Input
Amino acid sequence: MNLRPKNNIIRVLALNGAVLALTLIACTNVKAQNQTDQVHIGIIDPISNHGNRASSDTNNFSLNLLTGVSAKETGLTIAGMANIIRNDAEGVQIAGVSNCIGKNATGAMFAGFINTYGNSKGLAFAGFTNIAKESGGVQFAGFLNKSDDVSSQFAGFINMAKKVKGVQMAGFINIADSSDYAIGIINLIKNGEKGISASIDETLTPIISFRSGGKRLYGIIGVGYNLDNKKVKYAFEGGLGAHLVRSTVFILNAEVATTNLESFNHAEYFKSSLRLLPALKITPKFEIFGGPSFNYVNTSSNEGRELTDKYSSIWKNVSGNKIQDIHIGYNAGIQFLF
Output
């Protein structure tokens, strides 16, 4: 039996693991001193034209096949795996796996996996996560952004911060002490607002929803059950809302939401809605709301057709089994705030 291919794979994995481990260990050491401005070319520290003194040098340009180490970078820095910069970084840092900057980052960072840095006034792009102490710039990550204070954050899954000055957008959840413009399905904002609502619309679908966000924007997620159809009866709702007007007694909200009625057996009904919802506070914790909605429906089932026949359409298109419909509806309910 030929075991060489397996042995070669094991050797490659072991080498990559060792390089990554050395990178992480080096990222914890930030005691080097800057010296001169120059060009740094290497493979992996200390195999470079700077040798053992690389960690004390300031470079205008660095190019390393695997991992590069320096005290400061002022221009373009490129590494196949990791850039480890003990102090400040200016310009552009590009790494296949990670950029590790001990202090301030000014410019732009691009990493296939992770950027870690102290403070930043530029852009940070990472395939997985950005982790910073404070960022006056913008963070983009495929999965997670984490910072104390930040200008704006955009993540595929989760953002975490203390104070967000601009937009905080995540595919699923935003967490912050202060974030007025949080865009996500769930937004846990300390100085924001969270509420559980019970509502009903023109299709006679009661829905229990969780609304959460900051002082301006909030996310919506909910589940319900249609009372008027025996098959497309399980309801799922998601959307985004904005507080247009807020006072101690009266609130005017605008919402964009999608409601899916599902049978889990090839019968579906999709509705996209624009809602204008005035709300009146009964107590500081309870409010009632209700208003018109402008709706677009797309369905391809007999059950969906039955629902569209229940109300008057502004426009309706039937093409085979597919039905498209635009109609005016309503949404009304009560909400408990906490």
